[in-house]
Amino acid sequence: MEGVIALMRSVPVSTKPGVVLPRISARRSSPYISTNFSKRDVCLIRAQQLDSREASATVPPPPPPVSDSQDNALKLKEWEVGRLKEEVAATQGITIRRRPPTGPPMHYVGPFEFRIQSEGNTPRNILEEIVWHKDVELAQWKEKKPLVSLKKALGAAPPTRDFIGALRAAQQRTGLPGLIAEVKKASPSRGVLREDFDPVEIAKAYEKGGAACLSVLTDEKFFQGSYENLAAIRNAGIKCPLLCKEFIVEAWQLFYARTKGADAVLLIAAVLTDLDIKYMIKICKILGLAALVEVHNEREMDRVLGIDGIKLLGINNRNLETFTVDISNTRNLLDARRTEIIREKGIIVVGESGLFTPADIAYVQEAGVEAVLVGESLVKQPDPALGIANLFGKDISV
Ligand SMILES: O=P(O)(O)OC[C@@H](O)[C@@H](O)c1c[nH]c2ccccc12
Q1: Ligand 1 within 6 A of CB of 101
Q2: What does the pLDDT look like over 74-111, one tens digit per residue?
Q3: Contact 307, 278 (CB under 8 A)
Q4: Architecture of the domain spanning 151-392
Q5: Residue ranges per domain, the chain?
Q6: Under 8 Å CB-to-CB from 212, ≥6 apart: which residues?
Q7: Ligand 1 site, residue 354, Cβ cutoff 6 A
Q8: Is 344 exposed, middle or buried (0-12, 13-18, 19+ CB in 10 A)?
């Protein structure tokens, strides 16, 4: 554990090659500086940045106005580090930007400063909006529960269960993809899915109906989920391993998920750079968490297949930027070349979203998935256990 903390310690970085900035005061910390980079990571980023400088199509926006005040110097450094990270992300085809570290930039007019809405400080799509809001939430959570206190709480967390093992066992038992059934009250695309939403009752029904694992939404603002739901399900004696369905942008969230009873976490390739994914997988391993790495398109799929240590790969049929759902996405991404790599690496592919009928399940199974992640079509059923039997076309509970 000490190693993890050491890995997360702050390092001063500069955007100019070879120049090291003075250590930044701990009074205010940037997510980019204090939690995401080790010295080695920063070197890697520098190397990636130098390699990709010519390939990068991004034109950096003008720097914020400079003032002599210490506060402004800190803002400037945070802005520089944020830019550096965005450049790396752009070279990996990541279009989702992170929230500017000190908030949308201020504009100065005479002695006054104020914000003007512009392309640079307004989220461009729902996924970006969620991720930007997550940064604001995180700043508050981390103040309430700094990493040291989470580290102490880990001692009291229940042991993790084998998420991947449960999926494999279910698949072997039924000959059908292992089911991850999602406890989901609402979503930005579908609104409220179930008014009489009792997360523990729904989780019990899923287990009774033969789900191998459960997925629990924890995002409050956009999905009406919570970490209380996750902990309540874990503490209700449910044996299915639990996936914490969250928009993870910082390692702190991995620790928090673990203290709330998660056995697995979701890492979204549309949001995280390769380096972030590698770093988070390392921490998941130390914490005993399984990582489901989610992709939506060919670019993300090929990036993820190039990263070592990935055991669970989710193909989302829903585009999180536009919300369009198309289950043929699973089949299209699983071409012969990628299927071969997946087989060699022993990766389990999870088909995610938009699955409603036995024909849908057969279609993604035929495409090569060994597990499915299903929310809407189950959570809307008066009896979610019966919903599972209807979805698979047979009772998979025995
Ligand atoms: O309700 P559906 O269409 O069965 O989808 C479930 C799950 O795949 C979806 O909730 C999901 C997949 N990836 C995500 C990332 C964040 C939030 C939600 C999701």
Answers
A1: no
A2: 777 777 777 777 788 888 888 887 776 655 556 666 66
A3: yes
A4: Alpha-Beta Barrel (3.20)
A5: 2-122, 151-392
A6: 166, 167, 169, 170, 171, 178, 179, 180, 240, 371
A7: yes
A8: exposed
Instruction: State the Cα–Cα distance between residues 163 and 265, nearest whole angstrom.
Output: 10
Say if ligand 1 is within 6 A of residue 360 CB.
no
CA distance 107 to 121: 11
For the whole model, what pTM was predicted?
A: 0.79
Helix 252-259 to helix 126-144 angle, to the nearest 10 degrees? 70
pLDDT digits (tens, 9 = 90+) for 107-146: 666 666 666 566 666 788 899 999 999 999 999 999 999 9
**pLDDT of 26 higher than 90:** no
Closest Cα to atom 17 of ligand 1: 245
Q: Kindly give the distance from the C-alpha atom of residue 316 to the centroid of ligand 1, in angstroms, as a whole number.
A: 7
- Would you say the CB of residue 352 lies under 6 angstroms from ligand 1? yes
- In 3D space, the residue among 109, 110, 129, 113 whose CA is nearest the CA of residue 121 turns out to be 129
The tokens describing 124, both together, are 């461009």
3-state SS class at 112: strand
Give the residue carrying structure tokens 């010295």.
Answer: 39
Active site residues: 182, 184, 245, 294, 316, 352-353
- Give tens-digit pLDDT for 235-251: 999 999 999 999 999 99
